[in-house]
Amino acid sequence: MGSTGAGMEFDYVIIGGGSAGCVLAARLSESPGTSVCLIEAGGQGRGFLVRAPAMVAATISGRPKLNNWAFWTTPQPALNGRRLYQPRGRGLGGSSAINAMLYIRGHPSDYDAWAESGAEGWDWNTVLPWFRKAEGNVREASGFHGTDGPLQVADQRRPAAISRAFIEACAEAGIPPNDDFNGPEQEGAGLFQVTQFHSGPLKGQRCSTAAAYLHPLPPRPNLTVLTRARADRLTLEGRRATGVLIRRRGRQHHIRARREVVLSAGAFGSPQLLMLSGIGPADELRAHGIAVAHELPGVGQNLQDHLDYIIPYISRRADVVGLNPAGLVRMLRAGLEWRKSGEGLFASPMAEGCAFLRSDPNLARPDLQLHFVIGIVDEHMRRLHLRNGYSCHVCLLRPRSRGTVGLNSASPAVPPRIDPAYLSDPRDMAVLMRGARRMEDILESAALAPWRGQRLYPHDGSESAREADIRARAETIYHPVGTCRMGRDDMAVTDPHLRLRGMDGLRVVDASVMPTLVGGNTNAPTIMLAERGAHLIASGADARPLHAARS
What we know:
The chain is α/β, with parallel strands linked by helices. It has helices spanning about 20-30, 50, 55-60, 110-115, 125-135, 160-170, 210-215, 265-275, 280-285, 325-340, 425-445, 465-475, 525-540, and strands at about 10-15, 35-40, 70, 85, 135, 150-155, 190, 195, 225, 230-235, 240-250, 250-265, 280, 295, 305-315, 350-355, 370-375, 390-395, 405, 415-420, 450-455, 475, 505-510. The strands form six sheets. Strands 1, 2, 9, 10, 11, 12 and 23 form a seven-stranded mixed β-sheet that branches. Strand 13 (about 280), helix 9 (about 280-285) and strand 14 (about 295) form a beta-alpha-beta unit. Helix 1 (about 20-30) packs parallel to helix 13 (about 525-540) and helix 5 (about 125-135) crosses helix 13 (about 525-540). The radius of gyration is 22 Å and the shape is globular. The model is unreliable at about 1-5 and about 540-550 (pLDDT under 50).
């Protein structure tokens, strides 16, 4: 990769090698005459803890901080003043290297709403071909799915019996089966598709964006990847971004961009780096002694996340995951099986079952999502239980609450100030309460009776007790977006071409540009954003009108 001691210069400098950054680096460097530098604070994203799907249980907790920034929020008034843990991937692949691999796009109307809000060119008909372009789905190609893309999307080969029972339990509650949440209809219950290699020598391994887009590449002289390199601040000449100062191996280096700097540090990292560079709300910058280079009041505003409420159970049967001696022996055997065949329990995403449902039958689309997990999940695996068990999560898909990302310090070594303002809009609690009641009914169904043992954290069934339990235990399910929102109004940070408003040579391409949360998990939409963002950058933002990819 060469030395950066005297500084280096490239056409494009990408900051952040996560779900978006890996896609951008691979796509922009496809042209041999274009030089690209990808800067990532973490490592290569290749180790066993990344490759083995079941190891999500070891990395998500942040104990220790393996491939994980392990952030925390400010105290949340609506959640009994608790500070909530916020895991974020650190290393090539970003959060796609530590997540549950769940491949969900959201509802088509989510993207039409983006376009209507001022992000024109991001409607469903325009973004669908970019989802398909990314996808190497194990299923046959169709109008909804692609098979030739680098991102491997697999069906679960050996889901647990209890996950099938969960689908039956949903049917008992009036929720129909659905074998493709990314197909013509989102509503229903079924098994997740997962971002996992479904064939070849890597079969059964996690397919992070690093594993999909970067690791398979032959050496490209025009692509430089700098890992374990912390971005300190952008360098600016007037209203133009010219590069970034990084710290690597104890030394500071200046990485210069001839054409553009592309910020892909995520919904927390991207606004933080902008503010450290003097771009953002003037009062926030001055409070930390940072000179205002470009006042942009929307930076760090509009934070949205999916709040999640979990009900765990002790299982009467042993064919789930447990941390007791017998369960650990079972996992050891499963690990050996996975190394040989790429199958078995070690290949499981753990969150195997899913349901999309409506809290009110009069709604036009689902506003709740259930994740069914074949083990006990309690406080992101930070509170361990030794018994065999299972869990179900419910999250409200389109929260009305809005939070902020700010600075705790002018030092890039200090984490950002994260305030999601969960449940600050009381309408969110009303929807989550309805979802919790629906989830409780499903978990008490006949289909799950063979497994159903003691419920952890039981309450008396009253509305007040249910609300109290939500306030005491609800957590994030890891979908922060919106802090560099694209649009046309004064509070928008980026325009629909993903260019930073009022600046030249600077774009943001990651989940922070989403105007609103999608109705589902956010990794697949982030990859789509990067696929289309790479096209916009490579073709020149003004070279042609916004349009869908040509097949």
